[in-house]
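Recall the central idea of this unit: under ordinary conditions, the amino acid sequence of a chain determines the structure it adopts. In this exercise we apply that idea directly, starting from the sequence alone.
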Amino acid sequence: MGIKDQVKKAASTVGAGASKAGRLTQAQVKLTSLQGAVGSAEKELGQATLELSERGELQAPALEAPLTRLREAKAAVAAKQAEIAAIKAGSDEDGAAAPDAGAEAATEAPDSGASAESS
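Accordingly, the structure predicted from this sequence is:
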């Protein structure tokens, strides 16, 4: 086999590898897009479930714990937002109370991502 044939063979191998890499990248991008669509659908389902539960139209024992965690997390977020607003406004008269309140809210806040994402 001549040098020209060896170069052609090497170029063909490189071309095939590049084509495979391109297809792989394209498939990975599509997978990421599909995973995003699944996440959006799950979020939409969760919002609908919450709304139905709040209106009393959906009651299921399996939903009680996740709904409680969500309500507690939302309350912790609201409390932290109020604390931040107070700090920005300069109305934090008792400087020692704010960090304690933040630590208490942080310890009470549930691990919101662990159980929801593993489903």
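The chain has two domains: 1-59, 63-113.
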